[in-house]
Amino acid sequence: MKVGILGSGIVGQVLAKAFNSEGHEVKMGTRDVLKKEVVQFQNDNASIAIGDFAETAAFGELLVLAVAGNVVIDAIDISGKENFKGKVVIDATNPIAKEPPVNGVLKFFTDYNSSLLEKIQLHIPEANLVKAFSCVGNAFMYKPNFNGQIPTMFIAGNSEAAKKTVTDILTSFGWETEDMGAAEAARAIEPLCILWCLPGFTKNQWTHAFKLLKA
Fold first, then answer.
1. What is the pTM for the complete model shown?
2. Strand blocks (E) in the chain
């Protein structure tokens, strides 16, 4: 599959390498192809192509939104909304506000009756968005190792076919997947980012993931 990763920060780089490791043809999109970190990434990962956002969005059969949540709409517009039509789009963003955490609790620019996924879906209604990779740190997105325990990735989206595609990807990445339902379910998934980060900010503990247990 041709995979376009929109975002060249650490999340974008981790996911680009992960998809490449699974045999996909990957292009990573960035605002500045000459940025020092991007050039270094290209030198270290010759099999992953680099392009601007529009080139990357046009290239990918599957796209991943891996930019900061507060700039994701702008990134989509730069990429060309037409390049998202009919495609599976993994939304790995979170609506983290610019204000600092309070006692380790991040602030969001959404409320509990809305989600960033829903906002993005309204912006590109012909794309098949799936929330994924938003409730764990980048170090554990690919082949997470928790002493033999398989962690749970929570997903949401309106397209059953798109969620099946993403579930298959998550399985290959070493995750079990829990489909929480339609786009509105992202209102519950996105705040898991706050919970995941809490022990990190308060105890410097960042090596954990969620696991859904069923009786």
1. 0.97
2. 2-6, 25-29, 49-51, 62-65, 88-91, 128-131, 152-155, 176-179
